[in-house]
Amino acid sequence: MIDLNNIAVFIKVAQFESFSRAAHSLGMPVSTVSRKVSDLEEQLGVTLLQRTTRKLSLTAQGREYYNQCSEPLNHLFDAERVLTQTQKAPEGTLKISVPVILGQEPFYEFISTFLKKYPGIKIDLFITNLFLDLIAENIDVSIRFGDLEDSSLIAKKIGTSIRYVVASPQYLESQPLPSKPEDLKLHRCVLLNGRNNEAEWNLVSGRKHVKVLVSGSISSRDFQSVSAFTYRGHGIGLLPSTYCDQQIKKGDLVRLLPEWTSPQYLVHAVYPTKKFLPSRVDVFLEELKAWKSPLWIIDPTN
């Protein structure tokens, strides 16, 4: 197999009609340039350059070889230049997969701001609760909550999420306060991803862990609507702390069973590889890490 570097050196010598000027352009010693051309001639079994003490010129075979090689070589250099620029400049299509719970206004605003900041980037967004095969689907980044099963993926922790049991003062006016997790079975609850208007809530307190089957008149797939109906007094909600901290302080919500919370959920951005990471992925990860999402608390150690 002929070394493409030797062909590139020969093309440069032919263009300059000089070993020394070609060497200067390539940043190589003249002896190296001369040796590479000689190696190429040896491999081809032809004389490409006619050398005299006064002049350097292409032989007929050298001219034909130059004509055949110069344009394809330029295409290769152009392809390399495009790839290099793509790695450096944030541009191109960014394929992102996120769970349904993120498909709401705060995330749309984050994406909108990101696109305005990086106009060279286009986004192809998948909103699904399926754990897509990132490599098979050619997805650049996925946001995932909870434990990660696929150890082959690179994971960057972007935050944590914890949920509180809360209700509005309006709801509690006509209902007794629950004193233990099991009491939640006696209350109307506002459900996330409920089935047949039922859902299982996992609650922890220190080393204690309970699962409670709760029910209610309304279920939704996103926290935006779960929180809205909880605020309106339709039942008890299990909401991310970032959704209810301010409302608890203002008295718009009451935290129930304060010694109990959901388990802590880790939030990760996962991607197939960290080798030669395109700049569009790199800048997205940086923006995502800094974004104050209502669904998680930013990890200060990142």
Describe, in plain words, how this protein is organized in 3D.
The chain is α/β, with parallel strands linked by helices and 302 residues long. Helices cover 37% and strands 27% of the residues. The strands form 3 sheets. The chain has a 6-stranded mixed β-sheet, covered by helices on one side. The protein is rod-shaped, with a radius of gyration of 32 Å.
Q: Summary?
A:
The chain has 302 residues and is α/β, with parallel strands linked by helices. It contains 9 helices and 14 strands.
Topology (elements, then pairings):
Layout: H1 4-16, H2 19-26, H3 30-44, E1 49-51, E2 56-58, H4 60-88, E3 92-98, H5 105-117, E4 121-127, E5 141-145, E6 154-161, E7 163-167, H6 169-172, E8 188-192, E9 198-205, E10 208-220, H7 223-231, E11 236-240, H8 241-250, E12 254-256, E13 265-271, H9 279-290, E14 297-298
Parallel strand pairs: 3-4, 3-5, 8-10, 8-11
Antiparallel strand pairs: 1-2, 5-13, 6-13, 6-14, 7-11, 7-12, 9-10
Helix pairs in contact: 1-2, 1-3, 1-4, 2-3
Features:
302 residues, alpha/beta, six-stranded mixed β-sheet, 14 strands, 37% helix
